[in-house]
Please model this.
Amino acid sequence: MVNKILCATRNGIGGEIVEVQATFVRALPAFVITGLANNAIQESKQRIQSALNHINFTFPPLKIAVHLSPADIAKSGSHFDLPIALLIALQKQGTNASEEQKWFAFGELGLDGEIRHSEAIYPLLLEVSLLYPNAKVIVPKEGENLFCHIPNLRLFYASSLKDALELIQNADLQDDSTESMPKPKSLDFASININGEEFYHTRIFSSDFAQVRGQEIAKRAALIAASGMHNIIFEGSPGCGKSMIAKRMREILPPMSLSEIIQCVRLQAISGQKATYSPLRPFRNPHQSASKSSILGSATQSEAKPGEIALAHNGILFFDELPHFSKEVLEALREPLENNELVISRVHSKIAYPTSFLFVGAQNPCPCGNLLSLSKECRCSQKEIASYRARLSEPFLDRIDMFIQMQENEQDAKPSITSAQMQEAVFGAYKAQIKRGQSHANGKLNEKEIEEFCTLSEESQRLLLQAAQRFSLSHRSIQKLKKLSRTIADLDAKEEIGKSHLLEALNYRRVG
Model:
């Protein structure tokens, strides 16, 4: 008799469902695992034998054959311990599972039979929820706070191998109806309801825009960029507040839906970080000396490692001292900025990372930084300034929505607006976007969605045509102007884009 329990293994940033099979064969006593299992799985034999001994299981004088199907896909992970141990323990009596309602099991076993949590389990459960809705899944009790928010699964928590055995043995007593399926728990964060969906946020500001004195134009631009997730570059003298504003933008960004939070947690787990739920959108700030692989991510036949670009998904990617990043990295940003996706192709693998982030850049106007200063003299030659600016190519800059020249420090300026006030304005604009039927923010609309949602008045259309001819705007620049104007109109609570909204959007164009 061959028993089966389902599990899964990593395949890129997704997963591949694996059928774990086990049988006892009349042969010299042995314990073998086949199916391209890596060392972590092969070493599970010792853990499984010790765990089974703790529940008084007696190994028969037979050969135990375990197979991981499909056999041509490499398997990895210590979470295969639990399904293999369950199949061996239940070999004689079976799993009581029908073909329509199979069991999944994930968990690493301790030598004492305790089931331990592994960060690799979370992204695999998300894959199971998509491919096998309402599936029965046994997972470690230790990870309950993380797993309980995953939809479309019937999760059963077990602290030990003994608990997991009892769950399967009592399967006939459980109600398999869809109505009895436990609903995912709601997150314990402040939320707002938009069109019947909860969006989570926090009102705690570790750093406040009230601390930024002056710079009214830059703060207005930051508000617009945050409301529509528009890419933005701040240019100004050293110490004028470029980084201050960029780092404070994170806490005024739009609230996050459950699916967005789950996507962020999934990428955390895949990258080896501690996976935690948070209503704060990601903020990634790599140093200019970072390698291309660390920024873009990597892909091998056995595993994928997301880079800073993927980890910033649904949040902010901040490049301070933008021109000092390598030309190779900056040019590689063009695809993810345009398509909101980065595809890494290798000989044995091809992986697509989601990259829908708000790009924020900060730069000096020249190598010495004093070109725009009214009190300090610039020491750079025209050739040095031209070389410095040439580090950012036209195709890269064409993908940026807003360019802001910062003012010099105003010592006597008083605080004008707080982060709480800016967040309230962002939330109002974001509500308008979702209520219009958009699935994402204005800055990430595609061509078809721009035509549907970015409607201009007749006066605005004439103005846009004049601007396109006068400034020789590319088609991409025109579309970005429409999206930016749409966000400004949302901040003014206007359904139609007016002349004033388009004029303000034109003010944020790059000059020269």
